[in-house]
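Look over this one:
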Amino acid sequence: MSRASRLFGLSLGYFMVLLDTTVLTVALPDLHASLGGGVAGLQWAVTGYTVTFAALLLTAGAVADRFGAHRVFAAGVVAFGVLSLLSAAAQTLPVLVVLRALLGVAGALCLPSSLAIIARLYPDPADRGRALGAWAAITGCALATGPVAGGLLVSVGGWRAVFLANVPVALLSLVLVRGVRVPATGRGLDWRAQLVACAFLAALTDAVIDRRAVSAIAAGVLAVVMFLVERRSASPAVPGAVVAEPGVRRGLVAGAAVNFALSGGLFVLTLSLQRHLGPVATGLAFLPLTLPTAFNPLVTGRLVARYGPRPPVLAGLTLLTLGCLTAAPVPWLGMLLIGFGVSFSLPALVTGVVQAAPEGAAGVASGLLNAVRQVGATLGVAVMGGLAAGTAFAAAAALCLVAGLILAIGGRRS
């Protein structure tokens, strides 16, 4: 297999994972009619996936470095395909919620391992920038097609078709990536530190999603425990050498801001659009936001290869700031600017964080970036969803502006 074929296979694996974060939403009415359950049950059918996905990204990155990214990626894709088949056959809502949570675990295995493999396949920084641009473009199609594909699949085969569609994608991904090898680093893995980190992220996510005081208190306690365990661990979940890199820290701040604005903005706009549009029409209304994520990362990859990751990230954060300020009064223009902002920022952020990470820590660094992004997305939905549209987008614009200033000033000093 050529490098291009393997890159496409890696992209398909994450395309499938990313698609499952949004595609089920438009299937909820049919799911409710088929399996019943209250509103809380339907919420967990969606969020059960994202909670485990976010909570296990740190561990998945460490596991990829420890045991070999190619093995972890293959295991994640196989598990995702099998669990998708089981989900399609689920007969009760609680069973589906459990299977969705397990799908999140499988998805977490796929993401940092795919980025670690790309870093191995493309050692030259310029080639890697272009490769990550192509990876982001293919995976960005999941964001562009998720709501529309979900509506079409449900109209043809009901909610079960949403899960069955994952199986051929998983098989094709495995075929294209076969034969690739990434040496294991042999880095130690402190499971106690990893479990505490996972529990902290899960509690934080649950506290934000369901606004439970108990989960918020648990997250606070676990944060203290995590700090103590990490200090004493020989193989911490978040290695100090990774976080000590200024480029990694700035990338984490920017990644959280981008996903805060994107996910929070999608939530606020969805509530507004679905007052008078159906599922498919709502998905089509989001095309000004989602289409740039399907093609613009290719441009971003070329820019990163030529100028480095910092200029595209700054451009993206600027567009996000302007888009958030415009989204409430002129939604289509705001969505267009947000879409271009996201598609400039995210591929360049991935490249910057992976390049800034110490040798042998690409999996951990990419897992940390995506864990922080998922937390940012969850906070975006919780914070922006509780505010009026104008105030919500103003808050997102302020956060993106601050992240841009940190990157601009810090990058100039380094």
Observations:
- The mean pLDDT is 83.
- The chain has two domains: 3-176+235-413, 190-234.
- Residues 217 and 368 are 23 Å apart (CA to CA).
